[in-house]
Prior knowledge:
Nuclear Transport Factor 2, Chain: A, 5-stranded antiparallel beta sheet, about 15% helix, metal-binding, Cu_amine_oxidase, quinone binding, Cu_Am_ox_TPQ-bd
Amino acid sequence: xxxxxxxxxxxxxxxxxxxxxxxxxxxxxxxxxxxxxxxxxxxxxxxxxxxxxxxxxxxxxxxxxxxxxxxxxxxxxxxxxxxxxxxxxxxxxxxxxxxxxxxxxxxxxxxxxxxxxxxxxxxxxxxxxxxxxxxxxxxxxxxxxxxxxxxxxxxxxxxxxxxxxxxxxxxxxxxxxxxxxxxxxxxxxxxxxxxxxxxxxxxxxxxxxxxxxxxxxxxxxxxxxxxxxxxxxxxxxxxxxxxxxxxxxxxxxxxxxxxxxxxxxxxxxxxxxxxxxxxxxxxxxxxxxxxxxxxxxxxxxxxxxxxxxxxxxxxxxxxxxxxxxxxxxxxxxxxxxxxxxxxxxxxxxxxxxxxxxxxxxxxxxxxxxxxxxxxxxxxxxxxxxxxxxxxxxxxxxxxxxxxxxxxxxxxxxxxxxxxxxxxxxxxxxxxxxxxxxxxxxxxxxxxxxxxxxxxxxxxxxxxxxxxxxxxxxxxxxxxxxxxxxxxxxxxxxxxxxxxxxxxxxxxxxxxxxxxxxxxxxxxxxxxxxxxxxxxxxxxxxxxxxxxxxxxxxxxxxxxxxxxxxxxxxxxxxxxxxxxxxxxxxxxxxxxxxxxxxxxxxxxxxxxxxxxxxxxxxxxxxxxxxxxxxxxxxxxxxxxxxxxxxxxxxxxxxxxxxxxxxxxxxxxxxxxxxxxxxxxxxxxxxxxxxxxxxxxxxxxxxxxxxxxxxxxxxxxxxxxxxxxxxxxxxxxxxxxxxxxxxxxxxxxxxxxxx
Length: 753
């Protein structure tokens, strides 16, 4: 081989090596398509959000041990406690005062002491009562103080306490004993001896303060199906107000439109042939009304959402960050999800965003249905947020978080995977434009949203609670209702109160009203309320003066007093309603956030109702008040069992104080009227049953903040739209090869029932 040939081959080899090195170096600098990208530096959690963190299971246990050793009275585990016992009803976080928190977060002040709020039922005292104690500091408690009188202006009467699981068990035992006194009737009406009938509570319990008298509705119970759609026509009224369960008694019986003094009386009428009985067969699991078992074998799988390079959000402890958003999250066992210190691009927009109450108010021509006004906070919106089903309740690859609670037991419970966080591609542009004149181009941005979700099962209904954070700086709050409708036995003029949905089942009309607290801090704590709406003004045509033109005119108004800012339910709101900062944007408009409500609520309870004041928040679709530490919630768990003398009356918050340049709170009611129909069987669907509200920037920025999104797409007619470098959508074909390895499906949601 000649020297020249050797040199040529050597040169080619060196060139090849150089090219390979360049390729390898390029690959090192550019992450592989499927490689998880590191989150931005802003996602680092500094621990400040822990000031809002829910109690850990160990902290709850420490509080229980402290109370057991320092109250000086015998305490019975609430899961076993009778009304005549003392017990710890619940333990939850005592949220520090806002001023203390802001000194810590914004002013470099000391971290507020970590404290718990413990609710105790004292039945074994000369004057039985409910007491609330603040216990701290955690994790090692050393003090407690009774805050009941400071919070409520006096002691809390014992009859206002929510009904415990132990109390329900004792009531059910009483009802079963009474049913045994009507054996022939039960066999004829229901093919039952009573033991296989489900018993459903109603609420409130009576007609005046001090009552604890409840209608219970009986249903056929078939394992694996919802009994709520199978009423047998039998309802019983039980007085369970005495401290001693031996004194409880059955007061009345209702069957198929008639009232009876007792089950013995019912049996006597049946035996005498004086009672019209509707003979129901015991339903079978494969044909019962309301079965959710699939009727077809599984088909091909539907679309699956995943992140090609891993989640673009960060979750650390109780803190979430996502593309400029920062949120502290938690869960109250009674009122459910609560968010704090919501910031966008480092600026606080909302100090607190929390669910307050969910009301379900029914109509029927049966006593149980017509008297039902469920205040779900009393039952436990957060407590009954169970494990979410991966791939159906939330995307399969979402982040799932456990929640701990201590209610009606001395031992903390965990609802694992009961809150989920995910980025959602809505398959809708957040904004877009196709230019077909002058120059030709396309620009747009996908509407990708961070979602925080939990789902509460409250007897028959399932509420899906969503909190969404958009790239435009908007916050969206939404609730969907699904689950089973509640029903009454169909008789007489039942269709005056709903629709017949089964052979003997009346789907009873009802309304869902949901209440939220929104403590907005728009560019600081001091805000005002401004409305804007349109009017037409009739003016002479300025270029001819011979004609008139109807010109839309913008009407702005600053509301100065709370009474002006209390907007009644079902009355049109001003189309623009904003929390306004005294500071201006670049264009000399006040930096503002707009409240936009999406709701089709039913009618509020008449104000002359004896229990209306307990739900007086429902008078208003929006009420704006000055923020006060002594007005932390719009209602109370004690309002359910004594709505006639409510522990908290929201209407009293509105007392015409000034709302100009003050720390303000928006209280928002959303809801819908539901008249059940055939398509609500087996379940109510979420389609059309979602309501909520938006918090939208309005002159808060100088332009739409989403213009800074790295997801933006732009290409012109002069570019190759199929080139990955010019158009990120052209890169999706390679990203689609990054399907993640999905973890095996697991579910433990039945463990804590």
